[in-house]
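An example makes the point: we print one protein in full, the chain in one-letter code, the fold tokenised, without further comment:
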Amino acid sequence: MKERIDAESRDEYVYYRIQRALETLEEADCLADNGHFSGAVNRLYYACYYIVTALLIYHDIDASSHTGVKSMFALKFIKTGIMDIEFGKFFNEIFQLRHSNDYDDFTFCDEATYKNYRPRAEALITIIKSDIFPDFHT
């Protein structure tokens, strides 16, 4: 069982994860600007992963793996209606795409794929950051 952290440490960790999400979104743009779309999509996934983990940490929900993060996000925020089902579908899609892109042979992402996922990733980050964490300013 994981030891619980105090509220101040938790808030600092959540803030750190929000910052990581925003920085990783910028990394995705840099890679895409240079034609590295597979890497850019990977960074989009991780930007989303960081913001979703921030959400889980903020609500004191444990998840010890990428699959666990995806499952807890769906269970605690999508199925309960706290967040729109489209965000759950998107997070599942980008999780699968990142996994295939990283581990399956001859799977590549192109500019169209990046352009499809980029605004959706930013929307997920924005909604969690602004609606769920209104007091966190970056």
Remarks:
- The mean pLDDT is 91.
- The chain has five helices and no strands.
- The radius of gyration is 15 Å.
- The first helix runs from residue 7 to 33.
